[in-house]
Amino acid sequence: MHVFVTGATGWIGSAVVDDLLAAGHEVTGLARSEAAALALAKKGARVRRGDLDDLAGLRDGALDAQGVVHLANKHDWANPAESNRAERAAVETIADALVGTDRPFVLAAGLSGLVRDRPAVETDVSPEVGPGAHRGGSENLALEYAEKGVRAVSVRFAPSVHGVGDHGFLAAITASAREHGVSAYLGDGTTAWAAVHRPAAAELVRLGLEGAPAGSRLHAVAEEAVTTRAIAEAVGRVLGLPVVSLAPEEAAGHFGFVGRFFGLDMAASSAITRELLGWTPTGPTLVEDIEGGAYA
C-alpha cells in the first residue's frame, strides 16, 4: 500500500514510517524542513514538502496515496485555539479527499477527558465536538466519514509513548525534577497514566491501517495504569533525588505546562483493540524505560 503520513519525522511518526517500510508498504512523508525531507529520503520514503496549513498539499497527498496516517499536530501550547483550528481543517481536508474511496484514514487522538473514575475503553465516545473543542473535535469529525466511504480509524495514544529519545511529557517531568532538586507527584499520587512503548504504538498504527473496520477507535495502550507516584519514584531513583508530594496548586510552578496533565487520571484499557487486531504490545514498561536511562 502507498501511504501518505503527516508528522512523519515526529516522535511517533518516525517509528510509524519505519514500521510501514519494514512491512513492505511505500511511504510518502510530509516534511516541513529540508532536514526532515533528508531524514525521510534516507529511509527510502518519498517526500512531500509542506505543513498543516498547506491544505492543497494535504488534499493532493491524500489523493495520490492508497491510505493516510495523520499524526501531525501544531501542539502550540501558547495558542491552543490555533492548534485546534489547524487540526480540524487538516482532518476535514484529508477526509473530504477520500470520500467514496473506501481507503483507510488513520488519525491520532488522545485519552484525556474521556471518562472519570475508571479506565477509558474503546467504546467511550469523545466528548470533544465542534471547531472549538480540543484538537478541533477531529476524532468525532473523522469518524463521521465512516458513513461517507472512508475507512476512518482513530488511534488514541497513551499519554506516555515512551522510549529513548522521547521529548514529550516524561522528558519534561524529568527536566522539572532536575531543575527543582526533587521528583514530585501531585496529591496522593494515585492518579494514573496509561503507557505504551513507541515501537508497539507504531505497530498498532500499521495494523489499524491494514485492517481496522471503518469507525474503529483503537487504544495504543500496553499498561493500563501507571500511578504518577510510581513515575515520580522511578525518576527520583534514576536522578538520586528525594520524592515529594505537591499540592495541586503547585503543579504549574513545578512542572510548567505539563502540570495541567500530570494530575489527570488517564488510565485506559486496550482489550478491545487487542482482540480486534491481534495486537500484543511488547517492549519495556514505562518504569523499566525510566530506570533503564531513557530519560536520564
TrEMBL record:
InterPro entries (alphabetical):
Epimerase_deHydtase (IPR001509), NAD(P)-bd_dom_sf (IPR036291), NAD(P)-dependent_oxidoreduct (IPR051783)
Q: Which Pfam families match?
A: Epimerase
Q: Please give the superkingdom of this protein's source.
A: Bacteria
Question: Domain NAD-dependent epimerase/dehydratase: where?
Answer: 3-197
Name the Gene3D superfamilies for this protein: NAD(P)-binding Rossmann-like Domain
Protein name (Swiss-Prot/TrEMBL): SDR family oxidoreductase
Q: Which organism is it from?
A: Amycolatopsis nalaikhensis
Organism phylogeny: Bacteria, Bacillati, Actinomycetota, Actinomycetes, Pseudonocardiales
